[in-house]
Write a structure and sequence with these properties.
Layout (H helix, E strand, L loop, with lengths): L1 H10 L2 H28 L8 H23 L12 E5 L5 E4 L17 E6 L9
Antiparallel strand pairs: 1-2, 1-3
Helix pairs in contact: 2-3
C-alpha cells in the first residue's frame, strides 16, 4: 500500500505530466509520419488508421510516465525525499527515516556505497518526526 501512495503522489506532479505530454507529442508525430506519412501528408484521411494514430501518441506518453515514476520511486543520496519514509540500506541493511523534502543522507556504515530501498512510506496525512 505504501508504494501505491508514492506512485499516486508522483502522478499528481504536473511537471511529469507536461514532460510526458511533450515527449508524446514529438515522438508521436515522428512515428505517425513514419507509419502513415503518405496518408497524412496527402490528407487522405479515409486511409488513415485513427486507432494507430492515437496509440502512437499514447505509447510514448505511458513509457515516459512509467520511467519518471520508477526513477522518482528510488530514494537517491543527495536528492530530496518525496514523502516521509523508512529506508533500508541494500548493502548493510541499516535503516534511516527521512521526512518529506529532507535531503537523503548516506548510510552511516556504507557511505558512498549507499543504496537505499523503501521499507515503508509513512501516511501522507500523518506528521513525520521533527
Amino acid at each position: 500500500m505504501g508504494k501505491l501512495k508514492l506512485v499516486s503522489h508522483i502522478l499528481c506532479n504536473r511537471n511529469i505530466f507536461y514532460k510526458a505530454s511533450k515527449i508524446a507529442l514529438v515522438v508521436g508525430i515522428i512515428l505517425n509520419l513514419i507509419n502513415q506519412g503518405e496518408y497524412l501528408i496527402h490528407l487522405d484521411f479515409e486511409h488513415v488508421n485513427f486507432y494507430k494514430l492515437g496509440f502512437t501518441f499514447m505509447v510514448p506518453f505511458c513509457v515516459s510516465t512509467y520511467t519518471a515514476i520508477t526513477m522518482k520511486m528510488k530514494y537517491h543520496v543527495g536528492e530530496k525525499a518525496l514523502l516521509c519514509a523508512d529506508l533500508t540500506c541494500e548493502n548493510c541493511h541499516g535503516t534511516q527515516e527521512v521526512k518529506r523534502d529532507e535531503i537523503i543522507p548516506f548510510c552511516h556504515k556504507c557511505q558512498d556505497k549507499t543504496s537505499w530501498k523503501i521499507k515503508e512510506i509513512k501516511d501522507i496525512n500523518v506528521k513525520c518526526r521533527d
